[in-house]
Structure formats: structure tokens, C-alpha cells
Amino acid sequence: DIQMTQSPSSLSASVGDRVTITCRASQSISRYLNWYQQKPGKAPKLLIYAASSLQSGVPSRFSGAGSGTDFTLTISSLQPEDFATYYCQQSHKTPPTFGQGTRLEIK
Amino acid sequence: VDLVESGGDLIQPGGSLRLSCAASGFNFTTYSMSWVRQAPGKGLEWVSSISGGRATIYYADSVKGRFTISRDNAKNSLYLQMSSLRAEDTAVYYCTRDLGYTSSWYWFDPWGQGTLVTVSS
Question: Do A36 and B100 touch (CB under 8 A)?
Fold first, then answer.
């Protein structure tokens, strides 16, 4: 199975900050990488698909980049509603696998 | 587009349970569907997927031989039959649609609200 490793596992930041979350795959996955946001008690929500395509309705402060084994999710200016847990997920090979999550907290 | 899960319950170890997911707002038959679970306080774990025509089915190793995914396209419904349940199967189970272009290039969207399965004596 392809292992997905996110860093950091948790992150404290302030409203207005620029933050970047990294996701690394154990082997090349081309650009078959997706990002999800999950708030407490809620289902995950798709943010970014195919490494850098912004899902419809997602604010443009979210962006994704990368290919091969290294990927990033960047939030350009944190808003209060962005404090949540973020997961990356690869679809290159079955089984699809998720990173362990990055918890973004208010500083 | 909406997905609504049901069937979660408190069940004893070794027991069986059937989860359902009612889909609406899209052409259910044309999409692969998946189940993804999340143990309390833990991350996301893919469980199983089924293609629109039911020809292709995959399972996670952790549930293979114990869980069976199925769908009724006439009823726009997805199911997960769970047997020989273990404490480690305790989780919120989400139903989700596989959206994308190929068997390697897809993403999960949308997700249902989830249904809680608790395996405990």
C-alpha cells in the first residue's frame, strides 16, 4: 500500500497567517492527490483534487501544488472558519490511502 | 447531490450489521461508490468500493472476508453488510461518491453525514 505522511501533525496559527501543510507519498503518485477538510463532528469536505484543482465553491485562498511524491496545501490568509483537520489522499493505486491528518488550531 | 447513511448501532463482538446509504440528486448508476470509516479520534480509512455496474469491487485487507459491499441501482442505494464484527470496527462509517476520470484519477465527493457503529459487549 502507498503510505501518505503529512507534516506537521498539528499546527497553531493566527487569523491572517499563511500556512502550508505537506503531504509525502511513499512512491510516486503523479498528481493523483486530493485534499479534504474536516471540522469536528462533520463529514470531510473536498477542497482540492488532482493536486491543484480547486473544488467548486472552495475559497481561492486554498491552493494545492506538487507532483510525484511531494505535495502541499497552502492557505494564503487564515480565516476563523479554516481551523479544522486536513487530510491528503492518494488515488493512484488501490487501496486509496489517507494521510494521518493535520490539525490546524488557533494560536 | 445528497448521501444519507443509516443502520449504525451498538452491536456485540461477533455480530452482524447492515449499513445503508440513500443517494439522490445525481445519476447513481454511473458512479462508483465507496465506504470510508473513522474510528473515534482517529483518521480516515477507506473500507470498500463498488463500480456503478457492480462488476468491480475492492475491500481493505482489514475487512476482507467479513464485509460485503453491494448496491441497488433501482433504489439509488449503497449497502455495507458487516459480519464477525470486532471492537476495532468501531467507527463512523461514511458513504461517498467516487468522482473523477479513471480508476486511478478520482476523488471522494460528496460525503454523507456518517453513521456510528459501536462494537462492544
Answer: no
Query: To which H or E segment does residue B110 belong?
Result: strand B106-111
For residue A56, give the chain B residue with the closest CA: B109
The helix (H) or strand (E) run that includes residue A35 is strand A33-38
Average pLDDT over residues A71-77: 98
Distance from C-alpha of A45 to C-alpha of B41, rounded to nearest angstrom: 17
- A-chain CB neighbours of B34 within 8 Å are 96
Q: Which residue of A has its CA nearest to B40?
A: A41
**pLDDT tens column, B32-74:** 999 999 999 999 999 999 999 999 999 999 999 999 999 999 9
Smallest CA-to-CA distance from A21 within A73, A65, A62, A57 is with A73
Q: Is residue B8 within 8 Å of B108, Cβ to Cβ?
A: no
**How big is the A-B interface in CB pairs under 8 Å?**
63
Through-space distance between the first and last CA atoms of chain A, rounded to whole angstroms: 36
Query: Residues A83-101: what's their mean pLDDT?
Result: 97
Rounded Cα distance between B75 and B24, Å, is 10
What distance in Å separates the CA atoms of residue A100 and residue A89, rounded to the nearest whole number? Answer: 10
